[in-house]
Structure formats: structure tokens, C-alpha cells
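Supplementary Note 3. Input sequence used for the single-chain structure prediction.
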Amino acid sequence: MRWPAPSARVADLIRQGAELIARAPDDWVQLMNEAEPATRALTQITTDPDLVAAMRRSNYDNVLAWATANIRAPGQPVPANASTPQLSVARDLVRRGVDQAALDFYRTGQNTAWQQWMQLCFGLTRDPDELAELLSITAASIATFVNDTVKAVTEHMDAERDELTRGSQADRREMVALILEGAPVPLTRAEGVLGYRLGGKHLAALVWTADRDADLGYLEQAAETVMRACGALQRLTVVASATTLWVWLPVDTLPDHQKLAAALHTFPEIRVAVGTPARGVEGFRRTHRDALEVRRFVARIGAPAPLATFEEIQLASLVTQDQTRAEEYVGRVLGDLAHASSELRETVRTYLQHLGNASAAAAALFTHRNTIVRRLARADELLPRPLETDPLRIAVALEVLRWQATTD
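The predicted structure, written as C-alpha cells, is reproduced below.
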């Protein structure tokens, strides 16, 4: 698409608008991220935390790329954005088995950005001739930029797909996808492709990082650490995205939480979500679904913990399906205790976990019983209702608060 060079006045208006965007890109990107998915492929993205994160990085990167180019040369063609965030989107989509239809999120972002840009333009000038030229040139600019960027990402997806389909990793991914979908795959064939016994015991884990520069070897080392801490001698590993591994271990018990957390200290950028032990092919699916739910919960609530298991988060996950209602519940039940120190909140949570046994809570927290008693008295001063009259609701609220990314 071609468009005429802008007049000097309109070029100045485009530069002014681009500078406003560059100063507050988060305001624009937030609306793009909140746009409702219009297709099934987009729905698949919005239910996957890793793809959501990649999409948001892509939106932010595109907004800044277009704005920066128009500050430098207002109204001139903006080159396709083939930066690292865009190529990472291509890689992640391919490794998830998602086709090019998912790139509609670029169009969704384009539509949202255009609506915001039009509003901004009406604030820059009221002259009808200037406004007509301004909107005409920038409409062509945005559309061409997005079209060229989608084309570049599509080409990279094709290259990624060619690379993946040449190795055994692709075979494992395809087989795991069939099993998770419930396809009637012969057990012996599936086990042959995976090199893993499906009829036995399973414990699934997701190993991921937010560091886009981390290489696969770093993730593999972390997965190996998880395997050893869980007492397994082998693992089935599938590359789910550029920053995520899906792991299955042939064990039927959860790992010692403290032991695994300690082992992961050497991987400060790694996060691990653990499912529940299960057996058989259905157990293979169920433990993975549980691990995925942990990952979604961590993303939804912003939990900072590097390690979480389904057993730990199941209750909090149910309560926080509606985050706004969950926050209202916590505030209503805990009152001022919600804003107290994490030490005080954890004391009350542990006390309730041990069925109101102060001595047991003291032992669990490695402190003196009298200290526990004093903290409980302080908690009663902060709670809307005394602890002994509302233990169940307080325990649920504290469990929710435990996982939120708060600092004292």
C-alpha cells in the first residue's frame, strides 16, 4: 500500500501523536491486551499463560516500534517489525501447534490501536482538512505496518515448523498432543514414540521462565533438578514453547516441598508448577491438567513463589476464579489483618491449619508457643470478628492472600 507524503503541518501532528504514545505506551497496550478474542484460535491463546505473555510483549513492542518510527520520520513507511518479541511469538505458536489463524491477535490489536489513535487525532486538530489528511495517512501507515509484520512472523513460523518437523521432538509433541486430546492411539505405539510408560504412575510438572533470553539448556537443567528431587530416574520432556517445558515423571508421590524448593534456589529465574500423582493414560492427562491449572493460577493472581503444587493452590484457585470478588471477600473477612505483616498472617494460617493447636503451630513455625499466643491476640484485634467465631472463612481468606504478590 502506498500513500502520499504528508504536508509539513500533518507531519508535525503525526510526530506529536507518536510522542504522546511513546511517553505512555502502557495505556495503549492495556486496552489492546483486554480486547475480547474474536476467533477460536485467539481463544486458545488467551487461555494459555505463556502465549498471553508473548502476545502482550508483542503488542507493547509493536506500539513502540510504530511510534518511534513516526517520531523519527512522521508519515513515512514503517518497516515490518521482525524484533525478538515478534519472532518469539512465532516460535511459541508453532511449538504449541497453533496455526497462522492465531495471528488474528495482530488485527485485534490494530483495531483497538486505531480507535485510540483516532481519539488522539481529534485532540490534536479540529481543522477538517488537516484531520482528513492525518487520518488517511496514518490509517495506511498502521495497516501496512501490521500487514508487513504479520507476513514476517508468518515466514518465521514456517521456518520454525520446518525445523521442528525434522526431529524426534516433533514426534513426541505430536504424540503427546494426541494423548492429551483423548485420541485412540495404540498404547504400544505411543510408548514407543515417547520412550515412556503410559500405563504406570505419573506426576506432571511445568518448568518455565519469564526470561526470554534463557536457552533451552537452562530449562533442561532445571527439569533434571526437578526429576532428581522427585526421586525419579527418568522423565518425559516436551518443549511447549521457547520458555516452557512440559515434564512427566514416573512417580506416585509428591516431592518434599522444602527439598525441591531448596534445589531450585540455583535457578532463580525458573518457576515450577506440579500436578497431582495419578496412574494410567487418564492419569497422564489429569496430572498435566492440574499442573496447567497451577500455572494459570500463578499467572492470574501474580503469585511470586517459584514452586507451587496443585494440592497447595486448589482451594485458592477455586476462590479466585473471579479475582475482583476474591479481593472483596479477603477484605471483608480479614479486615485490617489483610494489611498486617506476612509473619502475623502466616501465624494465623498455620494455627488454623493445625486445628487451633498453638503448640503444633509453634513447632511448625519454629517459635515459642507464647509467641504464637501473643500473635493470635494481635490478630483478634485486627479481625472484624474474633478468630474462634469464624475460623473457616478466615482460613480460606488467608489461603488466598498467601499466594498474592504482596510485600510488607
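The chain has 18 helices and six strands. The mean pLDDT is 86.
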